[in-house]
């Protein structure tokens, strides 16, 4: 993998549009140049935070001001009328009173500013979920509809204070801003780690059933950005966030602090009634069968405050099903994107390019009632409400039986590399070693086949094995950094990093001869040609310049009316964030659902920094 540029590193740190996060993380860990760039950007972010969010005034500030005022002599105003004779004296007195008045007014202004930044509904909003680096379209809409709740959780134990001032929920997701302060009053960003044991935060429905678990999304150092996504829109009108926090982790970087056990448990309810009212469902129509034997059917579009859920069905033909016996047919993935009327990409799913526009929050794959049929759903942060856009199918992948193989002498690979070339994949076998614990991943001796090259197919569901000259078989697992090396979302390839390898547990010595066998390939098909016009009436639809199979299923304009209360919420949000929010066109420049500091020229709401 190549070194990351500044823009790519910023995308990595903000988790925006990153397709191979684990590969990037592995590269950064091994690359000193990328580590320096990462540290520089983190320091820059901290500097901005210090400059933007200065410390609040001390509690003794008011007493100091009042003490200073008591020492100042303020002469009472005369009740006698001012005449020509007393004019000079009156001027002298008025000057003194004027300076005192100016001083008092200045102090009141300072106190007003201090109180402004100490009001939780203002200061905490600016410093948490709604700071400009964290807010996305879903959060803006939640604020607009008054769905931001303030549970005011504050729990102290063993010198550590846990605070929660904001939570947002709708049928799509729950977001919680959690802060943890140490005995010195500083925010401890790395002490809380959510897991099954020790510390976890769950979402429960009205019957007390766990329907989600929050995890730390990262993205900011100011607080723990906790998120739970729901694969299916929840139906409850009331949910409960329950924290079971009994442990703060120890030092992961040898800074000398131990793990701490305590009790920071909490729970608070979230009323979902208003969020449920904003949920709108539209049934869709549209069907396409590819030359490879997959049929894709559009089902419905569900608009919620913080997201839009697209549901589809897929079905394999009998001929295609033969290639995917057993449960292989269940391992299906779609590749598609949305674009506006001008052809500019809005979002893409499983695209083969970097960077890509991706606001996918969650997805689900559920087998249907018969072999070959799958129910798929994808939930996005945003899709246009008032402007026409298109659903474009780019391809799909499905796990199929393979059996392709290549034989080689492991000890000679460095001098004589061998190539595995099949179905568009081109893998170079360049070396073989035997590794002992602790350098292995399975706590036992492993054979390691070092490779590089390029992949056309998706390796997600591949199944590999090796066989030695004695007929012994070993499972082989692929791992390492990989990512798209171009800008073609449909025909791009995956490039294997220098660290890519096959791990072969249980192989103790270098065999004289090996055969690498791919039992299952996650085969990728792009010979598709289908798009569907959405949010556009037939009379306004112009087919000129469009190719492929085009279907129209009516007007999907589900624009939620802005009442006076919602307008007031938008004005309040504009004031809090120091921006102006203006209704305008489609999100041609929208990236990963996040609104950055720069001006977004078009979108659900136009953001202009004051």
UniProtKB/TrEMBL annotation:
| Name of the protein in its database record | DUF4179 domain-containing protein
Q: List the Pfam families hit by this protein, alphabetically.
A: DUF4179
Transmembrane segment boundaries:
97-119
Enumerate the InterPro entries for this protein: DUF4179
* Gene3D superfamilies registered for this protein in UniProt: bacillus anthracis domain
Q: Which UniProt keywords apply?
A: Membrane, Transmembrane, Transmembrane helix
- Which positions fall inside the DUF4179 domain? 94-179
* Source organism, top-level taxon: Bacteria
